[in-house]
């Protein structure tokens, strides 16, 4: 398996884990923050069993694609207050978004504000303390998930994207979390953290990574948290 296949299979594995964490509710109103083209948003809706599907997307082309999928899209910047009233959603989803935001505090507070009492969110983000990140640091290289430039990938000759230009400013990783930091930030803003699971364990293939990430979630590729507004 080459590096791209490993990345793609691990990313899909994380999506499958997210799907396994949602709760069936035919009446749920759901919001996908950073919904992209809406395809995974629709997978979430199907698993939950709801037709009340909303998304937030900043890029025009992706927002239009999501609307074609039947997602009602707010075109908004997730670094700013969200354009919706208090306590309107039963479930909020955010996958590989948190690390791209500089207003992480505001984002977490906004999720809390728009969730109904008893509602829940699933937030997934890369793990700064992943095994491959620790190996990079040990070798004196920049961790894969921690970017140093808004324009180009630098600092790690093992990275397949080393030296390549960053095509979209929004794809830069601004804040990258460890298990402890993610948990404490979510709890600080009033959420009950029901679980944080680790997904993926580079450089191991999926079947082995499933075992390793269960045994050692603090060094997995992704951290995926299920949190609830009490």
Explain this structure to me?
The protein has 230 residues and is α/β, with parallel strands linked by helices. It has one domain: 3-Layer(aba) Sandwich (Rossmann fold). The protein is 33% helix and 21% strand. The chain has a seven-stranded mixed beta sheet with strand order 3-2-1-4-5-7-6, sandwiched between helices. Strand 2 (52-56), helix 3 (60-68) and strand 3 form a beta-alpha-beta unit. The longest helix has 19 residues, at 3-21. It is globular. The model has no long low-confidence stretch (mean pLDDT 96).
Broad shape = globular
CATH class category: Alpha Beta
What structural class do helix, strand and pairing data support? alpha/beta
Major sheet summary line: 7 strands, mixed
At CATH level 2, the architecture is 3-Layer(aba) Sandwich
- H/E series: HEHEHEEHEHHEHE
CATH superfamily: Vaccinia Virus protein VP39
**CATH fold title:** Rossmann fold
Please tally the helical runs, counting DSSP H or I stretches of 4 or more residues. 7
Q: Hey, roughly how much beta strand do the residues contain?
A: 15-25%
Q: Major sheet: order of its strands?
A: 3-2-1-4-5-7-6
Features:
230 residues, alpha/beta, Rossmann fold, seven-stranded mixed sheet, 7 helices, 7 strands, globular
């Amino acid at each position: 398996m080459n590096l791209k296949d490993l990345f793609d299979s691990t990313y899909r594995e994380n999506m499958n884990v997210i799907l396994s964490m949602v709760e069936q509710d035919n009446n749920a109103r759901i919001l996908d923050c950073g919904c992209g083209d809406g395809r995974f948003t629709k997978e979430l809706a199907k698993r939950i069993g709801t037709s009340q599907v909303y998304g937030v997307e900043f890029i025009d082309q992706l927002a239009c694609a999501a609307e074609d999928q039947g997602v009602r899209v707010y075109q908004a910047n997730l670094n700013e207050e969200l354009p919706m009233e208090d306590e309107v959603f039963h479930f909020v989803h955010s996958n590989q978004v948190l690390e791209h935001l500089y207003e992480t505090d505001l984002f977490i507070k906004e999720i809390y504000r728009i969730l109904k009492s008893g509602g829940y969110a699933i937030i997934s983000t890369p793990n700064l303390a992943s095994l491959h990140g620790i190996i990079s640091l040990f070798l004196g290289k920049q961790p894969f998930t921690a970017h140093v430039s808004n324009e180009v990938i630098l600092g790690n000759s093992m990275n397949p994207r080393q030296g390549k230009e960053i095509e979209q400013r929004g794809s830069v990783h601004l804040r990258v979390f460890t298990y402890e930091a993610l948990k404490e930030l979510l709890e600080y803003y009033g959420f009950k953290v029901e679980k944080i699971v680790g997904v993926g364990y580079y450089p191991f293939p999926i079947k082995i990574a499933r075992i390793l990430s269960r045994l050692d979630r603090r060094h997995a590729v992704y951290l995926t948290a299920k949190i609830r507004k009490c």
